[in-house]
Amino acid sequence: MIEDFFQGYKGHALEVLKKFNVRVWGTAEIETTRGKFTGTVLPRSENDDDLHIVLKIATGYNIGLDIRTISDMKETGYKKANYKIPEKEFPYTPNLPKVKLIGTGGTIASRLDYRTGAVIPAFSPGELYGAVPELADICNLTTEKLFAVFSENMGPEQYKKLAIAIGKEIENGIDGIIIAHGTDTLSHTAAALTFMVQNSPVPIVLVGSQRSSDRPSSDAALNLINATTAAGHGDIAEVMVCMYGPTSDEYGFLHRGTRVRKMHSSYRSTFRTLSDTPLATVSRKNGVQPIKKEYNHRRKDRNVIIKPFFEEKVTIVYYYPNMQPDIIDSLVDNGYKGIIIAGTGLGHINKPLYPAIERAHKKGVHIFMAVQTLYGFCHMYVYDTGRDLMAKGIIPAQNLLPETAYIKLGWVLGQTNDPEEVKRLMLTSINDEITRREPYNGYLVYQGGVPEVENFLKTFHK
Amino acid sequence: MSKIFDSQKNYEETKKECGYVSRKDTTQDDYNRIGFMSGLEVHQQLKTKEKLFCNCPAGIYQKSNDYNAEVIRHMRPTLSELGGYDGTALMEYKTRKEIVYRLKHETACTYEIDDTPPFKIDREALGIALEISLLSKLNIVGEVHITRKQYLDGSIPTGFQRTAILGVEGEIELKNKKVRLIQLSIEEDACREVSDIGHRRIYMTDRLGMPLIETVTYPDMANPDEVMEAANYIRFLNRSTGKVRTGIGAGREDVNVSCKGGSRVEIKGVSHNKWIPELTHNECFRQWSLLKLRDKLLNNIANTIQWKIVSKELNYKEFNFIYQPLKDASQNGSKIIAVSLPEFKSVLSHFTQPNKCFANEISERLKVIACLEQPNMTHNEQFIPDISNDDFNNISKLLDCSEKDAIIVFWAPHEDIETALETIEERCKLAFIGVPNETRKSFSNGNTIFERVLPGADRMYPDTDSAPIPLENEYLDDLQKQLPVDLIERHKQLEKWKIPHDTFHFIFKNNLLPTIENIINDFKANPVFVATLFSHNLKNIQRKIKPVSEFNFQIIYGLFKFLNNQNIHFEYAKEMLPIIYQHPKIEFESVLTTLNFKKRTKNEIFAPVKFLKERFKGTGKNKGENEKANWVMGQLRKQAIGNLGLKELINYIHNNEQ
After folding, report:
1. Cα(A367)–Cα(B315) distance, integer angstroms
2. How many CB atoms are closer than 10 A to CB A287?
3. Is A307 on the interface with B (CB under 8 A)?
4. Nearest residue of chain A to residue B143 (CA atoms)
5. Residue-level pLDDT at A182
6. Domains in chain A, number
7. Does some domain include residue B447?
8. Among all residues of A, which ones are annotated catalytic?
9. Sign of the CA dihedral running A195, A197, A199, A202
10. C-alpha distance from residue B179 to each of A262, B165, B493 (Å)
11. Is the distance from CB of A109 to CB of A178 less than 8 angstroms?
């Protein structure tokens, strides 16, 4: 491969570098109309403009120079940076559980990507050990990178591959599995794996981080410590998401893969169990402390059932007032086999959509209703609208979260197209995606400002 | 250990050996001899409405116990952009501090606790910082790149400070020399520390994120006074824009000092420039003494690489300890550890700073790195021993010490002992090298204590959360047009007006020149009078009186305008000033009433002169002409002042001699 001397530079900036014969990683003296600058030329992010050259100056800071001000450049040396997380061999400790970390991408451990200016993951056990040495006291860790995609690019193909890989690991006698995953669609994958990997004898823990591990206050290390604790030592053998409980560095929650959702775009404590309590808390110090009394316990056998099915022609429609029937029509015309509607309130949409719904139903499209309130059940008997809709073929999906409903419908339609069977599978709960009861403490969206909540905030760490 | 070592004498001797002299007795030759070198990092808060990377208000402070919520974080070192771990980062990690952040709704949002990525940089702050960059004659960058600078002490919840260079390679002109500037950066201010006890450090987040600039000089200063002069110059230059904050903590300097053969040591957060000379003086000699100590150690100890401490846990019951901290330690379950430092006799009591010796360097590190609150150790070279000679003899036997060894005894919870032992050994081994790179905390007496290992360039990382900001020529040209006059030009202006030098400091400190200039130009006032009214009269009043509401200097412009309109002589301003300062919102008319001012013509005032002179003869006082004139003046002063110049009156008294 020919070395790219001008990493990320394009257009005018590239011309200037070529004209003066200065490479990326070259140390340069640069004369400009704003004075003289000295430093190392750094790669430029591809999405930035072509009018500036990036320079790392002696004090370690980066600056940009406007090429329109440059009158002369001289390369005086060359020093390519070697960015590497120190790799130390992950030590083997007898009597500690064997845990497998499966990588999918995401920010558990990461380094800078000059091409995009963002962070890309780093991954080997050695690197992880270098960054989070505590892991070696918790388990014997091995890793496998199944794919390197950002969370938003995860999809059915990856779900199936993951399920199969997990099945193999379990067969081979692993004590627990961790899946490192970007957080954006972490809960989708968690739901998919709940349906695809059933009756697991060991914990399957999905973990991510909200702050990349290139920053000192990253949540990655603690999440990883908590996840290895849950996977290696916990008794809960389910597909779970392990992320921060409070935003403070205190303990993590283990959420059931079917009831968990990312609820804030940037908070560390973004993952919440909806309409139920989390399964457990987890910390290095106290281990896994179950909150829920009923869960699947860890077993010695290896009787896992892998069901890697997914129909991709499934969609989710977020209803809004004045939605036009052509939205539904075009989905049907494009061959969609299943639609989840996230309806208002108890599960409603407007009248103008009725004909489109009828048409879809007649064409054999499976339509389920979830609620955009996220919390609570779909109750379509309460109002006439709901009854009308059911008559037209929409099936209420109880308290399936819209995203979980979407994943489940895809998984169900991957196995059958028979309406009765589809309905039966959809409404038969595998692991609390539909809860029989809604606990009174499952809905806790408190509001700040009232004295008792403020008092709570002051008394406990957020 | 049978003979008693005279540690006090050793301290005095080592002090003499390094040639320590008090600052007032030190000459430039002394500083040249030890190679005094110093540079500055001057921090200045900008007066903006909002914080730098979020929309929280800037400049509102809370009391440390006034908060709505707390968040806990632990910091973990990460790799720098170029792939290294930073020394400080690793040290901070060793301490395993639990950091608590206190949040108040009014002053902190989710950005402060790192639960939201940064918003766009505050343009007001950027504009002010660029103005100051231009005034500092820096080469302005073409594009601003936000960089993350790691701080693992927890003072910023992200673990790094967002900072960006605006200009490089500038200069400022002092009285006798030019000082070169390395760079100027804009950055977010850190948290204010509430407490730091054991493994728990508490911070307030009110100041966090406020816009700050840092001006960094080359180490061009060759004596402590020059450092202060440069610090003042930069501070006054910043203030000359009128767009920076003043008051406690609004301006802070980090002072870098080294001696010949020493290392760069950074004295952090000096908030009073007048402390700088003593601090830099002492630091330079501290380094010099550490170098002397190194030479001695290298002479005495053959193999410094193999050098190791030896330690043993002491059984409290086997000794007759009467030292209270040891009693406390045994009661609260801490362990008591004795450490022998082979061939370190006379090292622990070696001079480092006035009233401080090498043992302090170890104790301070035990506090910071191993989280052991002071007093955390004692040793066998205390001037007044904490442990009896008998006990030391027994400890010495236990450790198998020789005459040439030194002994430290410390106490610590079980889990901190390993770090403590590493810390002791590390500091001792650093003595073989000379002066450790570190940041030090300053005290008003001119002493410093260990704060952290000095971070290197390896702690920089591009901020992947923000895009670069281009700085177009047009934008900079616009800024250039609104710049205040150069500080050095202002200096020359004051000279031209023959304004006394002792007023300069006050004028620049408070950025008064624009106001003074306006008064002089608009009302034809005498420059010296105006300058001294501020720098002498007002300064004096400020010391004695507390205003009932906020006083601003613009009020004095108003006062001159009032006097001018009323046709009252400006001298009357001096009479009015104390009342106006105390009651900044008072009407000037009411001040006149309060002072019982009456308008009088010259003739009315001059009329009784003759009569008074006659009366003076009858007083039987000293008969000199000047005494007479002064006496008459005294009688007339109250009626005269404001109605005519007092000089004119005294001239009249003199000239009407019959």
Report:
1. 77
2. 16
3. no
4. A64
5. 85
6. 3
7. no
8. 107, 183-184, 262
9. negative
10. 54, 19, 21
11. no
In chain A, residues with a C-beta closer than 8 Å to the C-beta of B254 are none
| Mean residue pLDDT across chain B | 91
Give yes or no for a contact between A64 and B142, defined as CB atoms under 8 angstroms apart. yes
- The span from the CA of B316 to the CA of B27, in Å, is 52
pLDDT tens-digit readout, B160-186:
999 999 999 999 988 889 999 999 999
Same domain for A404 and A257: no
Question: Which residues are B217's β-sheet partners?
Answer: B181
Residues A149 and A108 in one domain: yes
Q: Tell me, yes or no, if B480 comes closer than 8 A to chain A by beta carbon.
A: no
Half-sphere exposure of B258 (CA within 13 A, CB side): 15
**Is any Cβ of chain A less than 8 angstroms from the Cβ of B141?**
yes
What is this structure's pTM? 0.88
Rounded CA separation B473/B478 (Å): 9
Q: Is B345 on the interface with A (CB under 8 A)?
A: no
Query: What average pLDDT score do residues B458-465 get?
Result: 80
- DSSP β-ladder status, A118-121 and A280-283: unpaired
Chain B nearest C-alpha distance from A126 (Å): 15
- Mutation to test the B interface, candidates A215, A284, A446, A454, most B Cβ within 10 Å: A215
Closest CA to A280 of A318, A252, A321: A252
Which tens digits make up the pLDDT trace of A182-210? 889 999 999 999 999 999 999 999 998 89
What is the extent of the structural domain holding A31?
11-78
Q: Does A131 touch chain B (CB under 8 A)?
A: yes
For the record, the structure tokens of A305 come out as 């059932």
Say yes or no for a CB contact (<8 Å) between B464 and A214.
Answer: yes
Could you tell me if A245 and A394 lie in one domain?
A: no
**Domain that residue B558 falls in:** 486-597
| Sequence-separated (6 or more) residues with CB below 8 Å from residue B577 | B533, B537, B538, B541, B556, B559
Q: Collect all residues of chain A within an 8 Å Cβ-Cβ radius of residue B462.
A: 62, 112, 117
* Predicted confidence (pLDDT) at residue A400 exceeds the cutoff of 70: yes
The complex scores an ipTM of: 0.90
DSSP per position, B25-69 = G--HHHHHHHT-EEEEEEEEEB--SB-SSSSSBSS----TT--SE
Residue at a domain's end among B215, B249, B264: B264
State both tokens at B198: 């054991």
According to DSSP, residue A359 is labeled H
Q: Which residue has the tokens 């950027």?
A: B126
